[in-house]
Specification:
The chain has 168 residues and is mostly beta strands. It has one domain: Alpha-Beta Complex (Nucleoside Triphosphate Pyrophosphohydrolase), CATH 3.90.79.10. 14% of the residues lie in helices and 41% in strands. Strands 1, 2, 3, 4, 5, 6, 7, 8 and 9 form a nine-stranded mixed sheet that branches. The longest helix has 13 residues. It is globular, with a radius of gyration of 15 Å.
Amino acid sequence: MGDRRVHRRLAARVIVLAEDQVLLMGDVDPGVPGSRFWQAPGGGVEARERIRSAAARELDEETGLVVDERALLGPVAVRRLFRGYSDRILVQDETFFLYRTQWFEPVAAGLTERERSRHVATRWFPLDDLPENTWPPQIAALARWDGPEPVELGDVEESTVPIEAGDL
């Protein structure tokens, strides 16, 4: 699979909590049947955008929740993610924030065409009963973050198609 394009970027994610439930987005790799995984809302940082601003923007685009970026707690965690898909490899430096809110019905109206082709659901899950393939697996622990420093999650691979030595 050495012909997959490598895309590098900065990214921001928000762990959204309502009481003891966390909001997760279910995505798939269209090239890998049965490849559903769950993750916190978030995505790439645009040119000249601050990471906290990107987190708030992504939260609005992916869930319909409009928040003041100053209300985001953290950063609670940082990591370098390597994610192999069937058609590309994503390498992103991710920063996670935390936001506590009341339960709401998410509306993913701001997804891009590519995101819509991969997105299958947005759901609330009890922190003590997360689905298989929740990425990162430490989301429940991160939801209990009490600062002040972010948790260093290191370099992590979460792939639907594993990354091989010659791919990067």
